[in-house]
Fold these 3 entries.
Entry 1:
Amino acid sequence: MTALTLSTAAAPGLRADAIVIGVAKGAASPSGNLTVAPGAEAVDKAFDGRLAGVLETLGASGSEGEVTKLPAPAGFKAPLVLAVGLGSEPEKDAAFDAEVLRRAAGAAARTLTGAKKAAFALPVTDAADLGAIGEGVVLGAYSFDAYKQTAAADAKAKNDKAPLAEAVLLGGKPRDAAHKAALARAVAVGEELNRARDLINMPPNDLDPQAFAALAQTAAKEHGIKIQVLDEKALVKGGYGGILGVGAGSASAPRLVKLSYTSSKAKKHLAFVGKGITYDSGGISLKPAGHNETMKCDMSGAAAVFAAVVAAARLGLEVNVTGWLALAENMPSGSATRPGDVLRMYSGKTVEVLNTDAEGRLVLADALWAASAEKPDAIVDVATLTGAMMLALGSRTFGIMANDDAFRTAVHEAAEEVGEPAWPMPLPEHLRKGMDSTVADIANMGERMGGGLVAGLFLREFVGEGITWAHLDIAGPAFNEGAPFGYTPKGGTGTAVRTLVRLAELTAAGDLG
């Protein structure tokens, strides 16, 4: 992981591989000329106040995420200046948005792969800005190369591929309590989000339900989190028909993992439930060609929940947080659940399985009922649940459904605050009838149109009476198949981790219900 430090040093005298500055599209200028953002005054002065003009000559426009390199001026101990675009300059007396700084820092960190040290002279008005920049650096510097081999003799090539080793955040005071706390939070949240990314990117032959549970046990021991793992025998004894039904076709048996972080000062209890399908073939309702290649990411919800619980423990939040990881592999075989089978769920309710590729809602249903038994103040489930949600919201925004409008709004605001695009979605009652079954209490499929909302309505059936609940369908943003952008890499993104952590923080502070 990239090391983060704070410094009040001036950029010219700092020994580093690069100085990172921000540039923006000038709001005050009629022509929208480039402007140098606050924090880079010493760099601009060394260019005799002409840095913006030099960058424009090199083609810089100030667009968000745009990176322009130029040699550092005489007298600098760093050889390179890296200018990253911040988009439009904010209105007079306004500061740059935290997410803009987070993305800019991430883009710069990605560009500086192979560098040992970089100084970030981006705009800083308060501790929150430092936290956003630090988080962006940690997330942007992420790489997943555990399965790539570099010849031992080619040490230089290996170093060139290494993430940025150290980032010095200028404008931060090393002895300021708020600044130190913001940096510590950025490190904890960033590292745990990257843990989720690692899990999502792991190939399914190495991350089956048992392996996932074992990794959770190791992390729980390290961070003082109580853990309980239900194996297939315990699942049978407990009557977890949904999880067992989904995992029936695989040689890798399913697991239900419960992670419990508790605080002696807690007044509230949150439960997070994650879909953990370590590989989804679709089961007997096999996915068509072209839809299988990224299905290792179908455990992204469980990865997010796992990471969020560990982050809460690392931050010492004064709230009790329980994470439920519903882990199974959905495979076709002679023992697999068939379309037309009826499963008896942990709640006792029966479900007619009309499509075995609608498996996520089955494992979540059992975990939601288990979470409900503890009567938490709120439950939030996270799942790569439906392609319908991707059709509705695209690849960068997740949907939020809930049984309480105020809670749905609170979750949406928390997501937007931490920079995770989300959108509130309804649960139309008329869609519930489409899941009526002639042989069971409910079917796992309903109307095709509005399929993401139908899935939410199904899950609602398994939330305990009187418990506030929200469902995050992260099917779109969980796995980035395109080019990296900002602090988001190609592959697993770790989306929803920051939203869950923020919900825990707000609950601990008494600001969420």
Entry 2:
Amino acid sequence: MTALTLSTSSAAALRADALVVGVAKGAEGPVIAPGAEAVDKAFGGKLATILETLGATGAEGEVTKLPAASGLKAPVVLAVGLGKAPAKGDGFDAEALRRAAGAAARALAGSKKGAFALPVEDAAAAAAVAEGALLGAYAYDKTNGNGAKSNAKGSKDKDKGEKDKKDNGPLAEVALLGAKPRDKAYKAAAERATALIAEVNRARDLINTPSNVLDPASFAAAAVTAAKEHGLKTEVLDEKALAKGGYGGILGVGQGSDAPPRLVRIAYTHPKAEKTLALVGKGITYDSGGISLKPAGHNETMKCDMSGAAAVFAAVVAAAKLGLRVNVTGWLALAENMPSGSATRPGDVLSMYSGKTVEVLNTDAEGRLVLADALTRACEEKPDAIVDVATLTGAMVLALGNRTFGIMANDDAFRTTLHEIAEEVGEASWPMPLPADLRKGIDSPVADLANMGERMGGGLVAGIFLKEFVEDGIVWGHLDIAGPAFNESGPFGYTPKGGTGSAVRTLVRLAERTADGDLG
């Protein structure tokens, strides 16, 4: 992972491959953001004018490179847009700083060191720049993305020299100028950013790993390995244990695949914790749709259908790294949804771990089935709150687009808390209802309920289905990350193409607030 250092050096004196400065949209043209005073001075106070001549406006994410002026130790100045300049006396929005730093880090891929002279008037601003730069510096190792040995055909034959030419790798070091390495607040912000983004990147790596490399068993093995490294407890239920325990939802989804399912419990505990969070993640390592096969054009990226489990896994490890005073238990519901002679058929009835029966009307509505078993199991431990995370419905993508996830809950205050937290950390989200009138649509004549209901409002129907498996009296939230979990378009800000690690930062911040006694 990219190294992060705090530096009190002047931007003019620090040796680096490039100096990163901020430029904002002013009323009369681009204006140089605080932090770049020494750089502007080296240009005779005309840096803004030069950038405007080069076409820079200060728009968010805009990147402009130019040769450094005499007196600067770095050979290149990279100006990155911060968007509209704030009112006098106000600082830049944290998310604007994250996105700008991320765009700059992406633009410096292949460089050894970037010196970031962006506005860091306090530790919170420094944290935002650090997070954005580290997020933006991500690159997936195509041959060994999740730490497991690749068995992809032809991977051994790839010419390493050719690979190195085409893939320069991420920016190796981010030097954060204007930060105070001896100040406790700045130091803590840097340490948190490093630990947090390492786990976001863990989730990204898992999501980007091909399904022929990452199946339920290897995902479970990765969790066990990480648990040993960070002092976490794990329990892995294989197909025999799942059958003995009556986990009909997970088994029903996974029974069509040669790669059998798993349910993983990974837990971080703190000796002085007063609260416990349970996090439940959908982990479909590949989703073909099963017998209800997805059409061409809808299955090529379905290695990402385990993004919820990746987010939960990463969040538990992050809580351990940060030493949070809260217990966090992750449940990874892992299966591969494939069509075969042994696959669950539309019309079959599954006996769930809760004892309820479910008529499967569509085998492509499989995520709710594995989550239902895991939610029931999580409730048995009586946590103070449960949050599940899943790439659950295409309906949520239709409703909110590709960059925003939906939030549902059985408690309005908790839903509001989750929304506030997501917005705070820079993850776009929107609160969604659980309309009571949609419950009737999942009635079944042959089972307690069906896994499908009304087509309109399908994302809400899925949430209503999950609510059926949450014990009364336990606060529960549901994050449908189907849109932002996997970015099929070009990279932007600090978001790469491919797996994004969506919801990790929200879950970690929730754990931090719970540790502070502010569960909401």
Entry 3:
Amino acid sequence: MSGQRSVRARKHVRKREAVSAGQGPRPARFYRAVLAKVPLPLRGLRSRLVVAFVLVATASALSTGAVAFREARTGVLQQSQDSVIRQFRTSVDAVAVETPVAPSLARLQKAVNQVFQANQSQGRRVLATYGSLRAYAPSADFDKLSPELRRSVDTKRAAVFQRVNDDGHPWLVVGMPVTYNSGEGTESKLSGLVMYLVVPQDTEQAYVEAMVSAIEHATLVALCLAVVLALLAASGVLRPVRALRGATRRMAEGHLGVRLAVNGSDELADLSRSFNHTAAALEESVAELRRLEAQARRFVADVSHELRTPLAAMSAVTDVLDEKALRLDEETSEALQLISEGTSRLSVLVNDLMEISRFDAGAVELNLDEIDLAESVQSTLASRGWQGRVETRLPRPGVLRTRVDPRRLDVVMANLIGNALRHGAPPVRVSMGGREERADVAWAVIEVTDSGLGIAEEAMPHIFERFYKASTARTRSESSGLGLAITAENVHLHGGRISAANLPGGGAAFTVELPLHRDTAAAAGGAR
């Protein structure tokens, strides 16, 4: 028993694992597989509403038609059957009075003829049996009697009927046993004489087929009406849905003042009201955030601007004191050095904040000039005394020329090279080349690499964010945390791209791509 329980438990665990692995129950998988095969335009709400209406209308029409057909068919056949049996019984009763208890063949034939005359109609046939005697009218073609009907007539005192189908033609076969009373108060007895009547029911079959055709036409009309009603209902449902979709798209584009017209009091009207309340709250929140952001930007700009004048005076004083530092005592000299370094860092931070505030205010202008990119990089290295510390791999003069802002390109290269020198490890390399993307689009690619530890993976997505420092140990370093952010802003201002990555052998690589003009694209291709 324990072994069986353990087997069931393992099966249960495997089933749960299959469900948790995304396989899901079979009906759900089947539904998703079927839905995946449905063309995309047919998965919309309009198509589903039309299909639902058509299915409901079809089911209703078919069920109503089936019930109506069954009742009407039963009524037609029952009426015809009752009429035939009533007329047949009347004629048999009239003939039975004149027929002896043990009739001869001639007398039996006379009775058949009389019954046939009373039930004369197109296609009807009469048969009488008494023992081995048989009498027919109008002919002996009598093959519609089944053994079941014969046995039932021989054992019952009432009329027995059966419907048969012969070569697609329906027939009603009625068997009527003749009974007599032997005395007063006694039960009637079978005389042995049996009358049979065969009636064609082509007319009734035509009525039934006419009903089927009418039901089919009614079903078709119901389906057409269901499609029309479904389209009208879908239009009424989809109209506010489309309006909501358009409003959300406009809101996503920044039009927060968009609102929906509310009509009615149904669920869609409630949805429109909820959207309007949400949009109003979002607009208010965004307006407040923009106001606070504008205040913060203005505060940074004002503070940076107000600090520039005292910082300029402090820098002038520290420059004078630096010249006299060698003649001061050691403690005073160290204090003076700390003040000078702090003033220098504060000056860099204020300049970076002023630059960032100009970017935020959209007040940055490019002073474009066509320059040689390789010469610009060499000038950046020379002005900062980095020639001996940085390896270069630059194209020949005049190969890569484009229109840029020389001062901002100098800031980009100084920030990237200085960052590699401060936080990487030698050798630091600067390489430059050209890359043709299409016949009319070419790029100048500048790459700055180092051989340090590289950039931490968790820091990679934030490397160009403001005030972000990849290492907490550098929170009090010379870096303000704005250098790479300003670098990225300057590159984007030129329509370029910048990215950071780690090298396979160690170290970080910063890549700047600047667009080249068409007249320099051919030269860039030759530089590769």
